[in-house]
Queue: 2 jobs
Job 1
Amino acid sequence: MSTVIDESISAGIMKESELFALEQKYCSAGDTVHYLDPPKLFDRAEGHYLYDRKNTPYLDLQMWYSAASFGYGNQRLNQVLKDQIDKLPQLACQYLHEEKIELAAAIGRLNKSKFGLDGRVHFNVGGSQAIEDSLKLVRNSTGKNLVFAFMGGYHGRTLGASAITSSYRYRRRYGHFSDRAHFVPFPYCFRCPYGKKREDCNLYCVDQFAKNFETEYNSFWDAKVSESEFVAFYAEPIQATGGYVIPPAEYFPALKKILDERNILLVDDEIQMGFYRAGKFWAMENFNVEPDIIVFGKALTNGLNPLSGLWAREELIAPEVFPPGATHSTFSSNPLGTAIGLEVVRMIEEDNYGELTRRKGAYFLAQIRELQRRYPRVIGDTNGIGMALRIEICREDGYEPDRELTHRMFAEGMKGDLDARGRRSGLVLDIGGYYKNVFTLAPCFDMTEEEIDIAVELIEQLIVRCAPDRLSH
Ligand SMILES: Cc1ncc(COP(=O)(O)O)c(C=O)c1O
């Protein structure tokens, strides 16, 4: 039987050029980004490698923006998905299933043990949607709309999430639907927004934030009723899309003190850094502060299902204040996602991923610091926490962002012709940062030290190929 669909699509594998032509005609350009021309097409994935159609391996140092932290084709997690497909693959969320309840209980108990707080978990699909739910929760419990967020932060692309993401580019086409956040400078010490040096700044940025509440006439604070105009602060503990920017250890405790004094909720966006990316279950644990709401997604299912969710303190989410049907979606606590999520949480607790990610991350960081020492006219800054690492590509002065070289290195890695100790290989890097000059590394947790060495050798080959005139000190 011939249909319109199979007339246009050949029976066998289509040529790449044919696929690109179809993509040009039928795919929206708006739901992705094309950094390469022609774009890269991958065929399969295994461990921390992506393979193109010629079977060339590409070592992936970004693992789907940290969604696939536990490796492509992770046998344990894949098996759970396969078993769940045979057992209970679909179920409307109005009915209960065991995996949803157990996953919520596991996260609830974990947070009780970490923060001493009771709370509940609310599921959805996609990080941005979980951010939307958190905005509703904030509005519902405080009766107010206005929130703070960081400059350089990223919370997603739904209308509400874009309104608390500092980039105007993400809002320009669509106008304003929700209240735009008040954006506060993030402590990006390599490029301090106040031009200070960390050694003697005494957290000037925190003092500046505190000033917002100091006087009656130029303030977000009404001292007569002890009430803040802004009711929540949205924070990524480590800015992800912003370039894996790690704040100084003292920053969040100092900020939280002000938030507590002004009754402002701390909403911790762990969508990219949660599940041990930054060496702790939640990245915010590195800073010893207790969030009121935690939003998560991505690695919760190792990227096998778009399940996301939030955890909130009991006072904010108890059924008396946030009743049945307060906000939900068809796919929210879908059984495939919750089954994998539950296995992820079990697996990371059994296997001590805290020790593993901190040890391997420290090893990786030492290697890229050595690269920075050898190539100071290419790399301006390196840093890392757990297995979230950054390499900032700069001009010869080691400071001016070199966006162009960053892109060239990225594109060179995508050619697939690097030499991984005698084996032809590509390298998958992701570019982030305020100036699009930062390689944000989110390597697979399973990489061995030898594989980390190979990854660093591949990065060095990119430097040698793309900046041959800047190799000397
Ligand atoms: C910190 C953070 N928040 C929110 C989001 C949005 O999540 P999603 O792309 O799943 O909607 C992202 C995605 O990259 C993110 O990194």
Job 2
Amino acid sequence: MGKRYRPPANVEKYREPLLAILHEVVQEPNLTAPRLIQILKQHPKDGRGLFNKNDLIHAYRTLAGAHGLPPYDAQVLARLRMKPIRTMSGVTPVTVLTKPYPCPGECIFCPNDLRMPKSYLVNEPGAQRAEQNNFDPYLQAMSRLGTLYETGHPLDKVELIILGGTWSFYPETYQVWFVKRLFDALHDFGAGVDRTDEVRGLLRTASQLHPDQVTPLTLHGAALEQTYNQAVQQIYRMEMQRSRELALAVGRGERPRTDVDEYATWEELEAAHRENETAPCRCVGLVVETRPDHIDADEVIRMRRLGATKVQIGVQSLDDVVLEKNRRGHTVAMTERAIRLLRLAGFKIHAHWMPNLYGSSPEVDVADYRRLFADPEICPDELKIYPCSLIESAELMQVYERGEWAPYSEDVLLDVLLTCFLSTPEYCRLTRVVRDIPSTDIVAGDMKTNFRQTVEGALKERGLRSPDIRGREIRGRTVSPDDLSLDELRYTTGVGDEVFLQYLTADRRIAAFLRLSLPQADPIVPELVGAAMIREVHVYGQAVAIGEAEDGRAQHSGLGTRLIERAAEIASEHGYARLAVIAAVGTREYYRKRGFSDGALYQVRMLA
Ligand code: SF4
């Protein structure tokens, strides 16, 4: 079961103790968690229990600027905020799932939960929220934004992460509708409008994807008689047929449309994009996940039109024999080609890689991992390391039962991952190590979802630290720009040179970075001819609302601007006449203010 939401305490009823607590919090800029608990104990709720942070945040929003409290201050809110780690990277992620739908992959390690899009399990974090919201993008986003708001997170800079199956295999009309409805949610949430009841009402009569209506069903890997795709097509046949017919009828202008009809036009999406450019809740990143063999130039351009800035791509292995044994259905050459196309279009490349696959070994895994960065055609910007686990519903069960595959012991896995961590270049961010699969779903294999901490602990014991970005982020630490120096790391990729610019503390902690591509290959998008490309600008520090300055925090000390100016200099020195940026919809204004003009899919600045 997911966590049950408890509405915040009634401010009028508890005004006296809440005010007393807030007066103390306001006066303590260096408030620690133990000290906050002390204060809460001094002013208990109903004479016994403690107010929670949700109560305090709501009370602060209501009472700031009255009853002797100074006006609203984001720093005070930051002191009251729950789980600040979630927004330490400067943006607030909102993850949503696509609906159950066939996937062109037949990977033997992949779960087969028919209630979910391929590869997801109903008990995984985020999956329950998706199911409870009928996989509707608007409802999922509104629900997540609501929770984040209640827990005090700033929502002016949101990264939308769309997960589930193979994005590129969903029909184009579904993709356009899905993304448009996410932007509608950002719009409504920012404007204080809530249409969730209306949408729920429409879904109740229109959709079969309602949890009350779908038979909960999981295929059993050891006794698989039909594939996920066959079963999903049977169960959701009516749903799929309905959405296909509807798309055709709406496209022909034969019938009106509701918000849950999976159809939107590119023009409608583009209008939603434009509206978001100056909205209170801006999309500063849009991520989709797909397979290498479903990327071609058209798909790359389509993703860009949707507003995507980053692509999660399943690499899994760089060994054709291992790929074949696991029935990935693509080769290493296809992975290289896909990444090349994405890089040429400026996308951030977030790869997934799996050690312990059927047919691999610890030695093969370590060599494979090193190749991720030695092969100029791969070199991912971000990486998820997902050691293969045995899920009850996956076909791998059959291989396991034949005794042909077994998960590594914890010690062996630790050894492999230690070497992997230490072989990671500074330009890559290890975003996740071990997938967050509930241990009840795992038959055999690593069950610790905090394996990253195990690896980091083992590194620390040896006096080492992971060189990757995540291991070096300054997080919530306050740094003075004067204590930072600019470092330029250069490496070669299949399409040209890359410069990774990073602002570092004396111990190489990272406060901000920029990814600059200096392509030498022909671009696939005509507007990029002769242009260098900024693929990412990231400034660390607690995410603060646009326009809100928090002294000493890296976010507002102009590090982003300085990085862009240095990138322009480097591009100019290398003979480029123009500098392009793959801007997210909600960062267009930011780049306009820094001399970039709008093109069709990118923003571009002329260089001196
Ligand atoms: S491509 Fe991804 S989602 Fe599809 S079967 Fe393979 S692992 Fe699962």
